[in-house]
Design goal:
Elements: E1 14-19, H1 28-42, E2 45-52, H2 58-61, E3 68-72, H3 80-93, E4 98-101, H4 106-118, E5 122-126, H5 129-132, H6 136-145, E6 150-155, H7 158-163, E7 170-173, E8 194-197, H8 205-217, E9 222-226, H9 232-240, E10 246-251, H10 256-259, E11 265-268, H11 271-278, E12 283-286, E13 292-295, H12 301-306, H13 319-328, H14 331-344, H15 350-357, H16 366-378, H17 390-402, H18 406-417, H19 438-441
Parallel strand pairs: 1-2, 1-4, 2-3, 4-5, 5-6, 6-7, 8-9, 8-11, 9-10, 11-12
Antiparallel strand pairs: 12-13
Helix pairs in contact: 3-4, 6-18, 8-13, 16-17
Length: 444
Amino acid sequence: MLADENFIDANEVTNILFVYDRLDIIGGLETRWMDEFQYLKKNNYQVSFLTPQQRFEPKISELFSIHKFIINDIDIATNFIKLVNHIINTIHNEHIQVLSIHMLDTFGCAAVMAAQICQIPVISTIHGTPDIYRRPIERLFIQQLAGKSFSLSISVSQHLKSIFLTEAPLTTVIPNLINLGKYQYQPNNLKSAWLVVNRISPEKYPSILRFLQAANDCKITTVDIAGGGKCAELRKCIDSLNIELQVNFLGEIKDIATLIPKYAGVAGMGRVALEGLACHKPVCIVTPEGNLIGLVTINNLQSLKNYNFIGKGLVSIDNETFFAQLEAYKSEDSQDIYQQLKLELSSDNWDKYIQLYKKVSFIDNKALEAFYHKLAYFANTLSVPFMHDDFFRHLFCETLIEYELNDIQKMWHYYEESIGLMANYPNPYNVSTKSKRWWKNMFK
């Protein structure tokens, strides 16, 4: 239920605490925060950031201009309640008025529990589908019980908003936005090569390899790959494709904005697509599982935006069609896309989105508070990991019955009778281990 609290005063400085379980890499999420923090500051917010010590990289933190980083060294699996209490103390000591979580995991759940005890509003942002399809016990505890505390639920794309069920009184889509002052068209020093921007890890191989195979058939002679990670295994996969184009590994590049303008085109997905389009480049989308979607056009821009530019919802094409797209491409096409980008996806849109932040209010989740006190009392009796413990489940079900949370009870029984409470949802992006030459079979 909504508590009798006033909305946040827009004229006063508001202390907001961001919570995420790591800050040791730079990816799309971290790049999004750089702009969000800038506009929060502009709108009288003072940002603090809480993250675990074991997944905190000081050099990465230097890229952010915020009030304070708060690091903790608590093992979540063995000390969940200790973590909750640490966050409670942080909220009190730093005079935090709003909590913003960015992962529906145990770390984020501990923060939501702390927000309930401290009676401050919670903003939740969903960044990807895998964050929703966690094990059923986690969905019940974190998304459904703790999720009743959400005052504002944000999704980064329309498809995420569609599949994430929430009772939050405020819901919206805030897409990934692009800083058009940083990513700009530069006509000089143009290479004939294409640039792939992707982290080098096994789950990324299908996308990278599919583009290389298509580029080879489309007479692209050189592809540079920018992304951190070990490239030896990927190099073996590339060699097995028997392609003629030259592939160069650039390693991790922190300033992609100065690199993209030097290339003839960009291949990737997600934020990479936005960055390429902002620089007026033809951008090729390849899905995580290796489906070639082809060039971004003014006609498919909205569909791609609805799926955060990962290519879902669109039909894949063959190499011949991709070649025809490249032959038909004109610089005017990029200019038309840029105008739409400027209107809908410029980072200047943060100003209007942050107006929603000012409307959040504390939602009193009595059931979550009761469950916190039960877990705190019995904490030293629970096994590790605590969600596997039968008595944890007893306390959880007991709380659902006491507070007549019939919707969660119904899903509990459904999961028990179907895939089981501890089952993992299948990951469609996992590389198949059935064939050692899966990268060859993809393109037949």
